[in-house]
Amino acid sequence: MRLSARMQKKQWHIFPVQPKSASLASELKISPLLSQLLYNRQIETADQAKTFLNPKLADLIEPEQMPGIVPAVDRIEKAVKEKQKITIYGDYDVDGITAVSILLGLFKLLGAEVDYYIPHRVDEGYGLNVEAISQIAESGAKLIISVDCGITAFTAAPACREKGMDLIITDHHRPEPDGRLPEAVAIVHPHLDSNYPAQSNSGAAVAFKLAWAVVNRIKNGATTPQHLRQYLINATIFAAMGTIADVVDLRGENRIISSFGLRAIADSTMPGVEALLNVAGIKGQTIDSFHMGYCLAPVLNAAGRMGHSRLAVELLTSDNSLKALRIAEYLKEQNKQRQQMEKKIVKQACTMMAERGFDHPDRKTIVLASDDWHTGVIGIVAARLSEKYYKPTILFNISNGKTQGSARSIEGFDILEAISACKDRLNTFGGHSMAAGMTIDMEKIDDFTQAFEDYAISHWKEEEFTSKLEIDAVCSLKDLSVPAIKLFSTLGPFGRGNPAPVFAARGVRLIASPKKVGVNNDHLQLVVSDNSASIRCIGFNMAHLEKKLLENEFFNIAFEAQVDNFFGQPSVQLVLADIQFN
């Protein structure tokens, strides 16, 4: 979490010291700070802490417990035995791409006749569509398995039956509030049973569970054949990619999947994975959730954002190293183009906001539209704007008579509920509380914009929807030794629900003049002391605070603590999240 000081001023929320954490620290023989971090993540007993700190595959929920999975396996077993063609229908983001790759790899191993279909982000949009169903039927498919989509496919689902195909839906997005479900021979979805323990599984994790259940059916209580065992290990890598990239809660089962997948990726010999690590420049490194989310996922996402996601599936499932490397290099270049386009759209959107008054403090939402924006990039830009201005944000791209939108929210504001309240203005929509997509007729955008703002005003909770910086603990700088920080890293992989620890130190002072660094001198290097120790800090995009730092003898800092090996000898560096001046 590298936070810019140019972002909206944040309120610091410091977790209170938990009295019971002392007994947990004593029982586990860990530091009070580590115990406090565990308590902040709702880990309150020694057994919970041991499970959290040592995630094991043995602690995964048996796949047969997933709602809907048994009838799905029954139908898949029939299709494989009778050589019926199976088509896997996925989404175009990393979660969908990896979910497709998981099932595609298994069905190929089983000798099934299998193909896959991913809709074009711009031309077709999200989810199953009738035109694609017709195309798949013409290819001879008898079974369609959706991954990371389908739970609201009320039009496309009957089309499958009319074309003589069975449909299995696997998804993790929110079903309709009224409980309606599309017609299908099976629906595999964690939300269909409120008692199911892993309600926040990603689409890739759901696909992994289905694949695991199929393997269990095949082995029928015997030892798992080696080739299928290796396949499941490889599948955890893809499930971890989808889980981390989709920003789901990284506690519970998602933590186990992500932890094991991150460990497995370092030893992977899959050509696609190796190529991806090479072009990202992280081959040979210890891969963590940051690498997965910010180095690998954007390259895979570039396929769907700038072209077609089939390339990403080809990469992940390739058994040819040269082909995989060529695809990975191409996607890396596509990602560079995406980054350039993103910067351009952010600049245009900020200008439009100022012109329309959407940057006014009283304005609750941001809704902007342009015919000059790439549909594959507007979701990322919406995320940037919602983070910068801390407002629910929707961006629309108008192209060839079609208007597609991407929405991103702030913590606590359910954007899917807000969009659903305005659904009479929309053609289609779907998603979850933090992100959603939709289509709309161009002439209805202004009406939707006002309705969305009105909904936000009537449901706004000022005390809740204020940008907050969650701080795990106030500490002294002497508490931040290299061994301590390495111990804190065992809480990873970090992400939603389990963020990287953020600490605060009060009353620190400069012991040398700060130094502007970076290509554009945007960042600030400084060394601070609180009389217990002195530590180097880096403040990304904080160069504008240089004068204020020099004017204040004492100030407070919030930060992430890292071990820096840049100078050869491990040392502590603080990555500043915020600076408070009295």
Jot down its keywords.
582 residues; alpha/beta; OB fold (Dihydrolipoamide Acetyltransferase, E2P); inorganic pyrophosphatase (n-terminal core); 4 domains; 5-stranded parallel sheet; 5-stranded mixed sheet; 19 strands; globular; disordered N terminus
Mean pLDDT: 93
End-to-end CA span: 24 Å
Share in helix: 40-55%
Continuous helix count:
19
Q: How many beta-strand runs?
A: 19
Sheet-strand content, in percent, reads 15-25%
State the CATH architecture of the largest domain: Alpha-Beta Complex
Provide a descriptive summary of the structure in words.
Helix 18 (482-488) links the parallel strand 13 (473-474) and strand 14. By secondary structure, the chain is of the alpha/beta class. It has 4 domains: 11-15 and 469-580, OB fold (Dihydrolipoamide Acetyltransferase, E2P) (Beta Barrel), CATH 2.40.50; 59-258, Alpha-Beta Complex (inorganic pyrophosphatase (n-terminal core)); 268-344, no CATH class; 357-458, Diaminopimelate Epimerase, Chain A, domain 1, CATH 3.10.310.30. Helix 1 crosses helix 2 (32-40), helix 9 (226-245) packs across helix 12 and helix 12 crosses helix 14 (321-356). It has helices spanning 21-28, 32-40, 46-53, 69-81, 94-109, 130-138, 156-162, 203-219, 226-245, 253-266, 271-279, 289-306, 310-317, 321-356, 378-389, 415-421, 445-458, 482-488, 546-551, and strands at 11-14, 85-89, 114-117, 141-147, 166-170, 186-188, 366-370, 393-399, 402-408, 426-431, 435-440, 468-471, 473-474, 503-510, 515-517, 523-529, 534-539, 555-564, 571-580.
